[in-house]
Write the structure tokens for this entry.
Amino acid sequence: MNFVLRHPVEELLAAAPAEPALNHLSVPRNRASWSVLAHKGSEATVVQALAAIEGASVRFCGPEEWLVVTNRDGAGAVASALAAIPGASVVEQGDGRTVFSLAGPDSRALLAKCTALDLHPDAFAIGRSANALVCHVGGNVARVARDTYEITVMRSFAASFFSEICLLGREFGLSAGFAD
Amino acid sequence: MASLISCPHCGVRPKEEFTIRGDATPVRPGPDAPEEAWFAYVYLRENPKGRIRESWHHTSGCRRFLIVERDNVTHEVYSVVDAAQAKEAAE
Ligand SMILES: [Zn+2]
């Protein structure tokens, strides 16, 4: 039996232009992710252990829950580091979540059209992340650089999210394409 | 946004991110309580006007159950607390 890895927006992106515009939505193919939940009373130690993992980006979801995102090449090391954390339950989410990266000078204005999250730099500094309604689906929004946001949604909502953000991005000349 | 709820975990969010789960005041009867007590707990609800306590679920955010104390006439929100933490504090 053969399993074929198909990205959920494969068909929607088939006709995308080759040149990225000033505002660009990149769809990385190589992301790996995990849900991490701390057991009762272990929150502080799990936070410390997560912060110590190299090459992993830790996103806040709610009390005692995080989403850990990394590139697939370093996934093995991160997976074993996560498994070694005492007082935490870890679920692999690589095939369950889809990551989008929105970058460009108008990324904040674009995102503000589809989420009620307070994106002001004072409220949402670089490195901050939160679960929120974004393009009518629940997802996680992380500010990874000054004008760059990573949005993670459930795989089955990825096509809907992608279509809507592309529509909202038309006024900013948003382009989209796959990335490694 | 029409109604803003200050989630203790996520900050100020619009009501669209939440699911209202109903009156937060009924207390679950013990397993051996009489049938009338269970009937009242499951089916009977007051329909008060003014200041009420409700269970809200932050569906699109932290997915925690919250107790929202608000006025259903003026839409003023008095307090929002995590339901599990409120229960722990009360015990
Ligand atoms: Zn919340």
Notes: The longest strand of chain B covers residues 51-57. Chain B has one domain: 4-25+42-90. The domain at 4-25+42-90 of chain B is CATH 3.30.2270.10 (Folate-binding fold). The interface with chain A takes residues 1, 9-14, 16-17, 58-64, 82 of chain B (CB under 8 Å).
